[in-house]
Amino acid sequence: MESCSVLEVDINGEETIFLNKQIICKYSGTLKKLLGKSTCSSSGNLKVIFNDFPGGAESFELLSRFCYNNCEWTVMPSNVVFLHCAAKFMEVTKVLAQTEKCMEEIRYWAWPEVLLSLKQCQELETSSEAESLAVKLMDALVEKLCLAIEASPSSAACSPSPDSSLFRFSCDSKSTESFKNSSSRITWWFDEVLVLSPGLVKTFLKLMVLRKFDNVTITRFLFYYQKVKFCSASSNEKREILETTVDTLYVLDRSCVPYKSLFGVLRLALGLNINKSVMNKLEVMIGQQLEQATLDNLLVPSPSKSSHLYYVNLVLRFAKAFLDGGKRGSSQMKKVARLIDQYVAEVAPDPCLKPSKFLSLLTLVPDSARESHEDIYRAIDMYLEAHAGLTNGERLNLIRALSYEKLSVQSRAHMSRNTKFQEIETLDDEQQQEQKQLVLRVEKVETSGENEKLKEHIEGIQWRVMELERACLKMQTQMEVIKKRTKSTSRGSNRSLPKLCS
Questions:
Q1: Largest CA distance in the chain
Q2: Please, which residues have CB within 8 angstroms of residue 308's CB and are 6 or more apart in sequence?
Q3: Are residues 141 and 115 in contact, defined by beta-carbon separation less than 8 angstroms?
Q4: Which residues does the UniProt record annotate as the domain NPH3 (predicted)?
Q5: Contacts of 43 (CB under 8 A, 6+ apart)
Q6: Distance between CA atoms of residues 307 and 352, nearest Å
Q7: Which of the pair, 473 or 146, is modelled with greater confidence?
Q8: How far, in Å, CA of 325 to CA of 284, rounded?
Q9: In whole angstroms, what is the distance from residue 240 CA to residue 222 CA?
Q10: Residue 185: which of 153, 221, 222, 228 has the closest Cα?
């Protein structure tokens, strides 16, 4: 026998296989190249070590059998993935020709055969060949699903809504089995596709969207997949599942996506720190339909590192997405205005809420959308109560957000007695070298029913005086800025200013 005729192959450290050198080299281009530079081991055999062989020892043994049988074994859907990747790695052209021919007939495979091959691709996730096969297999899977749905149409109305009890899954098998037994024929494939990894599911969903698959069914599958998979997924897997869910929902018809389910996704996303661009998509989806939200939806706890009670910045972004979403009807604007007013009243007592954030909430929606400022007045009153240390400027900025004409007679009367609204300090011109305190004192007017108009007239005059004082303060601030600019200009240049033309 020729020296070193036995080949010793170490496969990924899993198993060592002994082969006849002449037989295996007859078909493998890779081994021909390697053995040209190899020497015998101490045992007298040639030894080759593979650390990244696709499919491991099982795949290598399968390919070896083909070589020992003169490459005349049958390639079928159950072994084509392992054989193709192994043959590509080992450069066995005869086997590659058979695997490629088998893949050309993929459209004639049965659904279970395609699904099994996809599972095998998952096991070979480090192989680039497996990735290209997965794309072909996934395309075939979606095509078969579309044909199956078209051949046996089922009314979407028969399928359970994602908001129904059938979609409130727990981690036990009974709830999943309940769904399987209750769902219509249009959702028979939900459990079948659960075996796929998040990466393959993402590809699967993209292909479904491209083929214009029913958006309602895609939405149902997404929420089902998310809830079932979350039970056993790691943090990274949960993040990947959520990002896939949001990315897919974002391109679907908004009417097919249950609005309150988006807040469920939001609560999970906030705890997993998902990608910012994906988070932005979720916020846009919620914000564009903000008129459907409730106060409970918006009362999202602030992130752990923040001292605020509620996540105010999130609500500001929701409202921005709503206002940037195009032309809105008056009824939608009024709904959002009422919702924001309720939210403002809820967060006003928060001692950590900064005046600038509170003012942003007050001025978030156009004033034309508000028929009344009753809620705004109460919110400002609560805020001033919880923030006694505000400067006069900060207090004035908040009060400016109020519209006196949109307050009821009772609120006007209450404000006239409200000490938090009566004492607003302003500074007179600095050139006078003295500080003067301007105090607005609103005296209680006792009137009978016949003098009610007189009372309202007095209150109106008092309100206009307050407005003049605010304007005075603003002008004084502007004068200070002009003075500072003038001084810096005079120091920076000794040249005289040009004379005006007569």
A1: 127
A2: 302, 350, 352, 353
A3: yes
A4: 187-436
A5: 8
A6: 6
A7: 146
A8: 9
A9: 13
A10: 153
